[in-house]
Amino acid sequence: MTAWFTKRRAALLLLGSSLAVAVLGTRPWVTGLSSDVVLAGRGLTVTGDQAAPGLVALGLVALAASVAVLTTGRRLRQVSSVLLTLAALGALALTVGVLRDPSAALSAGSGPGAVGAASAATPGTLTPWPWPALLAALLTTVLGALSVPAGRGWEGLPSRFERPREPGEAAPAGADRPHGAAGAAGAREASSAWDALSDGRDPTDDNPPDRPDPPAPPAPPDGPAPPDAPTPRTPPKTT
Fold first, then answer.
1. Who contacts 179 (Cβ-Cβ below 8 Å, separation ≥6)?
2. Element (H, E) at 33
3. pLDDT digits (tens, 9 = 90+) for 211-233
4. Which DSSP state fits 230?
5. CA distance 104 to 238
6. What pTM was computed for the model?
7. Strand pairing of 28-35 and 40-47?
8. 158 to each of 24, 77, 195, 205, 206, how far by Cα in Å?
9. Radius of gyration of the chain (CA)
């Protein structure tokens, strides 16, 4: 079911959708007019974060959790996936609340100290920005839920980005630990491929440029071959 949800696709979708939630929360969401006696007709405009306080913060939490999902080990990845889903659900709920009652969001977002805020009796009008924010929050929620089962099969960062462990030091709690000899061999092969790509080398090349050629067999010594040992001569018989 989650076979299509690879780590590369998750990186593009998770980072893009969570960043969109945070950015769209800074755009104007609701507009209206003040009915104040002195400043009648004064225009009021509130952003998404003003209409739904905490929206941008939840988007940033989802963005940070997305980075953790893509870079940490198996256990921390599961925790980050749950945190990502909860943050996206919170952003989704806040966005739906603004869409259901934009007038209340306009009055609340104007602030109690703003001029004309207390008498902003005109109905609030939604701008186009809340709708893409709703889609981004919904997409982030779905992707966060999918990353919980799919993330169990993802690999962490290659070994070159890990701190070398001292002799006898245990592996980190969140590190991926392949089971069996086949799993260990596969992990070493994947790490070598990642390291080769990071160095700008072709991981399928069996003899990369930085690997020295095998030594040639020693050449025979120069000069003529040594003469054969002389054959002992038998003295002639005397008669």
1. none
2. strand 28-35
3. 555 666 666 666 555 555 566 66
4. P
5. 141
6. 0.62
7. antiparallel
8. 34, 15, 7, 19, 20
9. 35
